[in-house]
Every structure is written in structure tokens, then in C-alpha cells.
Amino acid sequence: MMKLALFAALAGSAAAFAPSPVSQTKTALSADFSGEIGAQQPLGFFDPLGLMDNAEQAEFDRLRGVEIKHGRVSMLAVVGYLVTYAGVRFPGAEDIPSGFAAWGALAKTDAGIQVLAQMGLSFAIFEAANRDQWAWGVQKNLEGESPAEFPGDFRNGALDFGWDKMSDEMKTKKRAIELNNGRAAQMGILGLMVHEKLGNIDAILPTY
Hints:
- By secondary structure, the protein is mainly α.
- The protein is 48% helix and 0% strand.
- The chain has five helices and no strands.
- Helix 1 (2-14) runs antiparallel to helix 5, helix 2 (57-85) packs across helix 5 and helix 3 crosses helix 4.
- The longest helix has 31 residues, at 168-198.
- The two termini are 29 Å apart.
């Protein structure tokens, strides 16, 4: 299971390096993604697996959504790992260890099983809510024009936080920042997981 999760994180980050402008249309013969947001120095457009070879814009957008999603999950994972490793706990969970050991500890008690069930339900709700299927991906099951500006835009007319007031230059900058932070987080959580399994996590993190 861990190997599958690690492979998924790597595959999501290895493909496209930028959300594409909505107005662009590319075909397999003319697709050039080297100028997209996130394709920047020192690597430029980084596609070591060749996933974008002869790919169309729709496939790029789909993989961009995958990268953004994995990046966002990884950012939360890194924060959660570091916070629990530092000893921060909710009341009643003081004896739950950090890292992979938490799964086994939770499964041993009725309260822990309820927590795991709540987590599963929350994941399902988040997965259903945080998506826009009008234009991105393969599940185009809604009619009308999508309110999303780019893959990963899940505001759906409900959330803004000042985004619509930003200039196009600032929006581009913010999207590039999120991509880079997500990529760093994917490598970060992968490193934490590997070092924990190797038994030397205390060599890179302080002991509390």
C-alpha cells in the first residue's frame, strides 16, 4: 500500500508542470507545454516519464489536476506529520504515536476505529466536493460553461479569498507558488515516510 502511494505521488509530480490557460487549444501535432506556468529553471518542462509525448491539451489538463491534488494532499501531510511528531495532540489522543504507528494504535480501540471511520467519510466528502467536472478530466457529466478558470480551481462560485481582485500577473505567480510548494511537499512527505521505515527519522527531525 505504501509503495502504491509513493508511486502515485511521484507519477503525479513527474508530468505536467503548469496549469494551462483555459483559452488555449492544442493538438497532438502542435502541443508545446514548455511555456506553461511552472515550467521554470533549473529543470524547465520536466517530463522524465514521457507522459506528455504526443499528448493533447485535455491530457495535460488532467495530469495537471492530478499534480495539484497530490501537491495539496502532500502539503497537509507534511504539516500533519511534523505537528504530531512534535507531540501536539487532540485531548484524549495523547497516547497515539506519530507516523505509521498511529494506524495500528487507532485500530486497537473503539474510539480509534470511530476516528478512522470519520476520516474515511471526510475523505469521501472532500473528494466529492472539491472537483469541477465541467471542463477538466474525463467526467464531463455536467452541462453549461464551467466556472473554473483552470485545473484545480474548485471555488465553483462559492469561495474567493480575494482571487478575483488579483491581477493576471499575481494570479500566475500564486499558481506557480502553489505548484512549487506542492512539489516540495511531495518530496518532503516521501522522505519522511522512507526515513521512518528505515528507522532513522530521528536523524533528520529533533526528538521531543
